[in-house]
Structures are given as C-alpha cells and as structure tokens.
Specification:
This protein is 29% helix and 26% strand. The chain has 13 helices and 17 strands. Strands 1, 2, 3, 4, 7, 8, 9, 10, 11, 12 and 13 form an eleven-stranded mixed beta sheet that branches. The chain has a two-stranded antiparallel sheet with strand order 5-6. A two-stranded antiparallel sheet has the order 14-17. It binds iron/sulfur cluster (2 copies).
Length: 363
C-alpha cells in the first residue's frame, strides 16, 4: 500500500476566506476533486451543547468554509451529527452555532443524525459491530466529508478523524457501544470497525486544529489550546498520524491507528506537504506504574469519576448518559463504582465541568 498524502497548513484564526484558500490548495495537493452537483454529508463534531469559544465542537467557520465551496460546486449539503446526550443534538447544533449556518448559507440541511431512518450494516468478521444500525443518510449521500475537532480523550487519548465517526451512531446506541467495548483497546477496535463501514463514502477528512482542546477532554474538562493548523487527507488514519506529529504524540498510544493499519484500512505511511513544529498538547498519560505493575494486575489503577459539589447543578445529565446505569441522583449524583466501566461519558458530557477524575488504586 502506498503512502497517504496529508495536507497541513498553519491557521491561527477562524477566518472563513482564509480557510477556503487552504481547502482549495489542499484539494489540489491531494488530487481530490469534489464531484459537481452531488449530495454531500458534512459530519462535524457536535459532542455537546456548547458555544464555539469553548472549542468542544467543530468551529462553524470551518464548516462554513467547506460548505461555501460545495455550494459554488453545485452540491446539496446536509450537516448532521448525533451528540453524546440522547435527545440533545438539536440543542447542541443550536448552541454550537452550527444550526445558524442554515440561515447564513440558505439552501442546506442541518439535522440531528438520529432523525434519519436507519439501516443495518453487518460484517460477521467484526468482534463488536457484527451488525449495527446507522442512519440511512450515510448511504443516501454520494459522499461524506468528515470534519473532526482535535481534542484529547480520556479513554482513547485523542479524538481526531477516526474517532469523530462515533457520532454517526445515533442516540443511545453510543452508550450500548461503550458497554460492549469497555476498555480503551476494545473501544478503539469498535471505532475501527465503524470506520470500515463508513470509509468507502468518505471523500475527505478535514480537522479543525485552529484551536484544539487538551487536558481532560473531550468535553468541559478540557482546555482550549491554540494549536494553529488545519489538516486534510482522504485517509482518516493518515490524518490522525499527522495530528500526532503536530502535537508531539507517539502514534502508538492511539490504538485506532495500529488497528486500522492491521486491518488494511491505511498503509500507516504518510507524506505531507510540510512539517509543522510540534506544539505542546496534553493528553491523558499512561499511569506511572504501568510498565511494571499495571501489565500484570489489570484494573489496579483507574481514574475514578467524582462529583464536585460546588460546581454541580444537579441536572442529572451524567446519570442519563451513563451506559452502566451506575449513577443515581439523590440530590447530587452518587456513583456505584462496582458497576462503573470507566468510559468517562459522565465526565465528557457534564455541562458544568462538575466531575473530576481522581487517580485511585484498587477501585
Ligand atoms: S455532575 Fe454534572 S452532569 Fe451530573 S448532575 Fe452535576 S452538573 Fe449535572
Ligand atoms: S459512571 Fe461515568 S465512567 Fe462510570 S460507567 Fe458511568 S458514565 Fe462511564
């Protein structure tokens, strides 16, 4: 398999015209042509209902830049995603100012992914997604443009192009997926299985790393970090590898990368138009005792989700999203750690950053 091309360009502001110029140059470098007058699904990251300045969701300027080029190309555009809170996508599209693009651009559709009828995708070789129901829009459009946001992730270290597709699983299906594949390695395998289903329709992946989110991401626990670039590739795995390079992260720590290469979904070899100087970007580190103890005693150390009483608004979102149903609302949330699968969905979706992750032994 040959090297995959990735186009990287410095970009320090959400300037729609400047981003459009980057896309045009990138498509030429990558030798990708967007077919005229076809239907295109734009898949941003709309994790939760937050404004663009929190940098939890793909910035609307990045989506607008791509959408304006598509409109000039005569394409029909649908923007869709399914957020982390079942039933919350409409609100998330509003708050992230992605829904407002419809008013600004006119003839486009912005819709929660879960409002589309679904169809079954199956692959008997898969360990987790032997059969999965995904929205028909993934099939109905002629191509998909994946628009991830660069963020740290408590479970799989990094959310970039491959991880962004998890939002194609509608509503509560995401919680079921976490129960099926609870460990970081298992969840990464499930993500790669999902990527394999969607990959044939993906024309291009473009990452918003103008401002990323590091630290305890990918939700309100994260910290905006002005990474300062936009990256594009037809190969989502290659784009993830290039992102690792741009933030000084060893790609072997991102399990989806090697799993996708082993599955033949990418060569894992990349060619870029330029090298970016790596910026400091904090992702969850392996635990300090991992090398000599953790390997032998699985589950010895964990980051335990715990409520921060003075920040908690008792909204109950954590209990609603918990796949293991181990959070009970008794005024404030109460955790039953014996049932917890440590997926960190509660931490990721708490709207008020009221959940901390405490390193614990023998949980
Ligand atoms: S911890 Fe967060 S999500 Fe849970 S009830 Fe409190 S504010 Fe809501
Ligand atoms: S309590 Fe939090 S980390 Fe544990 S299973 Fe529920 S959502 Fe996941």
């Amino acid at each position: 398999m040959s090297k995959s091309k990735v186009y990287l360009e410095n970009c320090h502001a959400y300037d729609v015209e400047a981003i459009q110029r980057i896309i045009v140059d990138a498509l030429e470098y990558l030798d990708v042509r967007i077919p005229r007058e076809t239907s295109v699904l734009l898949k941003p990251n709309v994790l939760s209902p937050h404004p663009p300045e929190r940098h939890i969701t793909t910035h609307p300027a990045v989506i607008e830049a791509m959408a304006r080029l598509l409109l000039d190309n005569g394409n029909d555009i649908v923007i869709a995603d399914s957020c982390g809170q079942p039933g919350g996508t409409e609100n998330a599209l509003e708050k992230s100012q992605i829904a407002a693009l419809k008013t600004r651009l006119g003839n486009i559709t912005v819709r929660p992914m879960e409002e589309y009828r679904s169809r079954a995708y199956s692959n008997p070789r898969n360990r987790f997604l032997r059969e999965v129901h995904l929205p028909r829009i993934l099939d109905d459009v002629e191509c998909i443009i994946n628009l991830p946001k660069l963020k740290s992730h408590m479970l799989v270290k990094l959310t970039a192009a491959v991880k962004n597709l998890f939002g194609c699983i509608p509503g509560g299906g995401k919680q079921q997926a976490h129960v099926m594949a609870p460990s970081a390695e298992e969840f990464a395998e499930l993500l790669v299985e999902l990527y394999e289903f969607i990959r044939p329709k993906i024309l291009i992946n473009m990452i918003d790393a103008v401002v990323g989110l590091d630290g305890f991401g990918p939700g309100t626990g994260g910290r905006p970090n002005p990474v300062g670039f936009i990256g594009l590739s037809a190969d989502a795995v290659a784009l993830d590898i290039a992102c690792c390079g741009a933030i000084g992260l060893d790609p072997s720590l991102v399990h989806t990368i090697q799993l996708a290469v082993d599955r033949g979904l990418s060569s894992g070899q990349i060619e870029t138009n330029k090298d970016l100087r790596p910026v400091r970007f904090r992702v969850p580190k392996p635990f300090p005792f991992r090398t000599f103890l953790f390997k032998h005693v699985s589950g010895l150390q964990r980051r335990k989700p715990m409520g921060i009483t003075k920040k908690c608004k008792k909204c109950g979102v954590c209990a609603k999203v918990c796949p293991a149903k181990c959070i009970a609302m008794d005024g404030y949330p109460q955790w039953d750690y014996s049932e917890c699968i440590y997926c960190y969905c509660c931490h990721e979706t708490c709207p008020h950053a009221a959940i901390r992750l405490k390193i614990s032994l023998f949980v």
